[in-house]
Amino acid sequence: MKYEYAPLSIQPGDSKGMFSIRLLHLLPSTDRDAKLECQLVETQIPDYLRGHSTPRRSTHVQYQALSYAWGEPEFPKSLHVLQADGALPAGAIDITENLHSALRNLRKRDKTLVLWVDAVCIDQSNIPERNSQVSNIPQTYAEAVGVLVWLGTDDAQHDGRLCLGFFTELAALIASDSDRDDQGSWRKRFKINQAVSAFLDSPQPRPIASFLARPWFRRRWIVQEVVLANDVSVHCGESGIQWNAFELALTELFENDKGGFSDEHRTTLRIMSRIRHTDLGAKSQVPLDSLVEFDSFVCSDPRDRLYALYGVIQHWFPGSQGKAQTGSIDYALSIREVFTNFAIFMMRLNDTMRSDTTYNPVTHVLQLATAIQQQTPREARLMTGEVCENIPSWVPDWTGTLSNTPLNHSPTDRDASSGIPKRQADILTSEHDTRLLFIGLVYDIVIANISLDIGPLFRAIHEAKATLNDFLCSVAKSFNETGFFGAADHNVYQPTGQHIISALATALVANWEHTPANSYFAQHPRFPNNFLEQLSSSKHHLPEILHKWPAYVELITVTMRGRGFFLTKLGYIGICTANVQAGDVVCILSDTRIPFILRPKGGRTATLQDGSPSVPDCYQFRNETQFKEVVSMLEDEPSAHCAYQLMGDAYVHGLMNGEAAKRLGSQLGDSLRILPIA
User: Which stretches make up the Heterokaryon incompatibility domain (predicted)?
Assistant: First the structure.
């Protein structure tokens, strides 16, 4: 008989400062193979986001929360639910193989184990309840006395037992008081290195590799489950370890074994070793970075790409006043609606930012919308039957992965949109799509985008030199084919007066703004200037000086991943996303910090008239009356009018500090346009 859930006493929307959850009371058994029996008992815990300003320990039944991987949506096992008096069965709940093994291994021999388990304690078929319970997961985990992490049963090679046993020994060695003084610390370091080497040098396959490949380490929901927990213990089969020891060991492995792990393993080690102690201060104004940091973590429902991290965002950014930071969880919404609504919430953070901060949420949302890309083209995903909704080009599709690093936001005194009237983007929602309406400048037209294969740059310096030389030959060829210099001096970059190679070398590293902290160029402001001086003294033979400047090669690989080098009709150069093509337009949008590349949709093309680009059906902006007229027109027939596809952010050399508005001067008002981005 299937178990029928009774409604919770506090329904979604009730304003009582409390909310209801069910707790799984797992009954004891001395027989490990006995069937699983439990009771589901309702309790109430504080709703901090509505009822209390600060958390407090309440008097509800103490419980632990289970963190585990659901696995495939197959439910071959049963959990038998007894009535409140424990005398009669109330029904059975079908559960996954992994949950069954977790409950069987964690079950006590002589006392009841009280757990909160999402798959069982939430009526998954009741969408309003599911929305409410998932929204309240942060409080549910915060109120639990601890979290039990279940990694799965041990395998035939006993990798779980071997790894957890080694982690326990390594953590004890790291935390030991011996040789703590500076004079003797080298002895302790030798012992640690020796222990790590002995473990990692075990015969292949190393137990750590299969251990880190377990699905739990890639489950997206674990992030908030671990972050929000009061205490965490990790279990694999019959072995267990406390999180503090687990974390100490993983931190050592991440920092110690530089070459022995795959990139995937190192990502797991890095995140697991600091997930409980992330520097909150560093994250105080960039919640979107949290989503990027955990983009390798998976979930079965695309909406959970966001929902699974809402609790973490609200925890790490407490000034956001809870759900006002993210919006509410609603599984009745489509993927497009969830992603679009979240993008709008993120852009509205501009209202709470200090005016002097270098961070701009609107700019960041637009950057991530194009930097996060799918591994396979849309057409291929449609052919395989994968759901592929029509997400607007300005909305990040969180089911993809980061293909390039967004450009840094210029400070307020070096702002590409400086001089353009500040106006927040308007949002126009219709039956067909949701558009952003910016005011700004259609400033220039792309005439060529030259790709740079950064792969060989990671190899020997002679290969890097050959690769960069081939790239520069392609650039020189594009200069000639496009008539880039016109009648001007072919050695001079007109917007800045620099030698063209010095301008190109600066553009390839986005004016040094992506320099890693450990890079040579980050050590002193004069070092980039030293590089340019040597480039000039070497007659601007850029490939010839690379052997003296490996840090420059490294910086190109950081900045140019997923990017190309472009030329424009007005004689500008810069870097942009790899999919930009001739005919796309360089735009300076109000309320953003850097230029963006847009593509006119519907076959419309931009032309250069009187030194300024012109796009058919592009709308002038002089006052609010004119703006309202355009909005009304777009609302009536959105598909009949010009719109743009967002292609990505751009570094344009000589156009990053408000030069666009300065060049137009008194003509700026006549040049402003309303730019609908769909």
Answer: 63-225
d(CA 510, CA 560): 9
97 contacts: CB under 8 Å, gap ≥ 6:
71, 74, 76, 77
Alpha-carbon distance of 492 to 472, in angstroms, equals 16
Share of the chain above pLDDT 90, in %: 61
pLDDT (0 to 100) of residue 282: 44
- The helix/strand/coil state of 21 is strand
* pLDDT the model gives residue 206: 77
Joined together, the tokens standing for residue 130 give 């599911």
DSSP 8-state secondary structure symbol assigned to residue 5:
P
Gap between the Cα atoms of 246 and 232, Å rounded: 10
Identify the CA nearest to 415 among candidates 658, 661, 660: 658
Residue type, 31: D
Average pLDDT, the chain: 87
**Residues 358 and 410: beta-carbon distance below 8 Å:** yes
Q: Please report, rounded to a whole number, the percentage of residues in the chain having pLDDT higher than 70.
A: 88
Token representation of residue 304? 């959970």
Residue 198 amino acid letter: A
Residue type for position 370 = T
Which residue matches tokens 């592929």? 388
CA dist., res. 579 & res. 422, Å (int): 29
What is d(CA 571, CA 484) in angstroms, rounded to the nearest whole number? 6
Cis peptide before 205 (omega within 30 of 0): yes
∠166-170-175 over CA atoms, to 5°?
150
Output the pLDDT for position 310: 87
The tens digit of pLDDT for each residue in 221-241 reads: 998 899 889 999 999 999 999
Residue 61 phi, psi dihedral angles, 5° rounding: -60, 130
Higher pLDDT, 381 or 476: 476
Q: Residue 625: which residues within 8 A CB-CB, separation 6 or more? A: none
What DSSP assignment string belongs to 574-643?
Answer: EEEETT--TT-EEEEETT-SS-EEEEESTT---EEETTEEE-TTPEE-SSHHHHHHHHHHHHH-GGGS--
**What is the distance between the alpha carbons of residues 224 and 208, in angstroms, rounded to a whole number?**
24
- DSSP helix/strand/coil, 359: coil
Report d(CA 603, CA 597) in Å as an integer: 16
Question: What number of residues does the chain have?
Answer: 678
Q: Which of 18, 5, 21, 24 is nearest to 58 (CA)?
A: 18
Rounded to 10 degrees, the C-alpha dihedral 392/396/402/405 comes to 100
Report the pLDDT averaged over residues 383-394.
71
What pLDDT was estimated at residue 664? 92
The closest alpha carbon to 64, from 28, 25, 114, belongs to 114
CA angle 276/152/133 to nearest 5° reads: 60
Contact 233, 148 (CB under 8 A): yes
- Structure tokens given for 458: 């990671």
645 membership: H or E segment, kind and range: strand 644-652
Say whether pLDDT at 347 is over 50: yes
Least reliable range by pLDDT among 186-190, 245-249, 539-543: 186-190
Q: Residue 83's CB: how many other CB atoms inside 10 A?
A: 12
State the pTM of this model: 0.87
